[in-house]
């Protein structure tokens, strides 16, 4: 499908000449071969009424035309353009000579019309058809021009041009249709892989949240309780020899809990979306945009506005998943050429906007459909936003594109949680050091 821009022009030209002909193109070529064979038979039979010398010359010219025609037709895809043009010149010369010997040879011009347009699929082919038509008329002047003698070649040329134009249009439509089908198959494959990967990532994220809310929080609580017990022991005022063993056991328990908490957080980090664990939200959106742009041939841009701040992993994951779903809908359904993904940081909220210039739709009509006919993606995006306390809005009008917007509130507690989580993930023992301080 694709041709490298670094390819040599001659390589591209050779590739186009050696391509496999379309079925309808083969039908036209075979039809021209049959027509040429019949016309040659008629021209050869006309030798019966000619004097011996002229008959022998006509037989020689028609035989030469037949050999050159059928040999060249078989070798045509392998020849360079210059060789093809020389072949046409040879056929045209033999045709003119045969027409001068036996007027019935004029009918071979039908075959030449098709050959001109086949080899020179541009203005040169049309000019060659007009030239052959003029020659057909001029050669009749010595015997006297008639209306039929002029209209015959002219009408024949017009019919051949119309047939050629019709077939070229069919070939172009078929090629475009094949390319479109290939693009749709590639896009569907890419989107299916993306959706499967998104399902796996979503389940991993759910497990990460469950582990964070149960095991990790439980281990953190155990550490806090152990610190409280240690402070209480110190407050009793007992001699060190009496508290040495309990304090040793408490320290061992605290160390074990800290190590397990660190391993749990490492497990949570591996279960988080790889795109976010390896880069920022902007980087993850850029990567996602490049993937969909390549699959659906859409110009997708990512814009970050406002003062970027550290967001909780859940919030970033929510924004990324909603963006993936919205851009996926653009690539799959919108038939758009451009799409813009904008993330805006504000003091009290973070906003995601996905806007395209596609076909648009009626949001009310889509929401009223049965689940089997669509709108599950919109419901999933709304649910994701609601889980983070946000609201998702969809604005669209048929023929004027679509805008998907989601705003998720961000407060001081959320920022503190995000910063603290990031710090503890980097060094799980920081919590213990703060207590010892």
UniProtKB/TrEMBL annotation:
Keyword Transmembrane helix carried by entry: yes
CDD domains: HATPase_UhpB-NarQ-NarX-like (cd16917)
Biased composition (Basic and acidic residues): 8-22
Single annotated GO MF: protein dimerization activity
Transmembrane segments: 31-48, 55-74, 94-116, 123-141, 147-167
Key word Nuclease present: no
Name by which UniProt lists this protein: Signal transduction histidine kinase
